[in-house]
Amino acid sequence: MELLKERIRRDGKIKDGKIIKVDGFLNHQIDINLINEIGKEFKRLFNEEKITKIITIEASGIAIACLAAQYFNVPIVFAKKSESKNIDGDVYRTTVTSYTRGKDYTVILEKRYLTSDDRILIIDDILATGKAQLGLLDISEQAGATVAGIGIVIEKGFQGGGDKLRKAGYNVQSLAIIDSMENKTLKFR
Amino acid sequence: MELLKERIRRDGKIKDGKIIKVDGFLNHQIDINLINEIGKEFKRLFNEEKITKIITIEASGIAIACLAAQYFNVPIVFAKKSESKNIDGDVYRTTVTSYTRGKDYTVILEKRYLTSDDRILIIDDILATGKAQLGLLDISEQAGATVAGIGIVIEKGFQGGGDKLRKAGYNVQSLAIIDSMENKTLKFR
């Protein structure tokens, strides 16, 4: 998606060779017009998939999932990172290792909101090693839901998570795949 | 907002006299069409306020803030609940006590994304004692931003947070105010 790549080139900040900060438009401050175009692009890419629900994980996936969901006209459900007094139903649980936070955490999703009748689209902002996505796939498998696709805004191709998921048979569509950030120079696939 | 009150009556689940679960449509599973109507209603209520930015707190405020932001055509910024390798700038910090989670946590917002030039609308899903909103007001004060309004989907009027904010001079607009849930019966203001 050219509009997105241009924006990453202009506003992305490369740190430490492996991390790219895109929090001026994607995951801290959010440029609504850009995310709306991203939502339309996901609709175009997964239009034939008869999606019944969009699944993501808090927090930065929520904005993208919501704006996409408008075009699919389906509900979203986001997996939550911690327990609260407001969770009382039967839940699916999985453990996710966060690369940027450097720790493991548990995410939960109430069973009533994901079932074997669902054909889901998993949406997230960043795919690096794929840990967050594996967590959502684990929950989807527990639910018996069909994973019709995985839509990612920025894939860090050099960390390998996306290609592992493709090899496992998933329909992964990333709107921008960064294959290298060496010498602070972005190379897109 | 009648559409919202009907939905709360139909799908809200009262627990323990003080907590109402609305996670079938508002803050776990999200009904995009309803949240879109909520976004339009916030635009109607704050239309004259020359909002430059919408501010919320992760995670459940993000969906509502994003769908509202489309109608205001402004960016959103969400305060984050924890540090990550992706935060490196100068940040505003504040402490919030979560009623539903029963603990204190720190939220941060990068200084570059909120300044004294901003006229902000604070948006959140639930207003109870007002702790989360006070955190965002503290951050706004640190930034020197002007708080043009506070838009809330569901205010639990019997917990007093909303009226305290109104007494302090803020323009608080809640789309549904629950004044009592005694005997599992909802009374709206």
Number of helices of chain A: 5
Largest interface: A-B, 47 and 47 residues
Give the H and E element order of chain A. HEEEHEHEEEEHEHEE
Helix content of chain A: 25-40%
What is the end-to-end distance of chain A? 12 Å
Report the structural category of chain A. Answer: alpha/beta
Instruction: Estimate the mean pLDDT confidence of chain A.
Output: 94
Low-confidence stretches of chain A: none
State the strand order across the main sheet of chain A. 5-4-8-9-10-11
The largest pleated sheet of chain A is described as: 6 strands, mixed
Q: Please give the oligomerization state of what you see.
A: homodimer
Beta content of chain A comes to 25-35%
- Shape of chain A from CA axes? globular
The counted number of beta strands of chain A is 11
Question: Concise description?
Answer:
2 copies of one chain form a homodimer. By secondary structure, the first copy, chain A, is α/β, with parallel strands linked by helices.
Features:
homodimer; 189 residues; alpha/beta; 6-stranded mixed beta sheet; two-stranded antiparallel sheet; 11 strands; 30% helix
Provide structural commentary.
- 2 copies of one chain form a homodimer.
- By secondary structure, chain A is of the alpha/beta class.
- In chain A, 30% of the residues lie in helices and 34% in strands.
- Chain A has 5 helices and 11 strands.
- Chain A has helices spanning 2-11, 32-45, 61-72, 131-143, 161-167, and strands at 13-15, 19-21, 29-30, 53-57, 76-79, 91-98, 103-110, 119-127, 146-156, 172-180, 187-188.
- Chain A has a 6-stranded mixed sheet, sandwiched between helices.
- In chain A, a hairpin with a 3-residue loop joins strand 1 and strand 2 (19-21).
- The longest helix of chain A is centred in the first third of the chain and has 14 residues, at 32-45.
- The first copy, chain A, starts with a helix and ends with a strand.
- The model of chain A has no long low-confidence stretch (mean pLDDT 94).
- Chains A and B meet through strand 3, helix 2, helix 3 and strand 5 of A and strand 3, helix 2, helix 3 and strand 5 of B.
- Strand 3 (29-30) of chain A pairs antiparallel with strand 5 (76-79) of chain B.
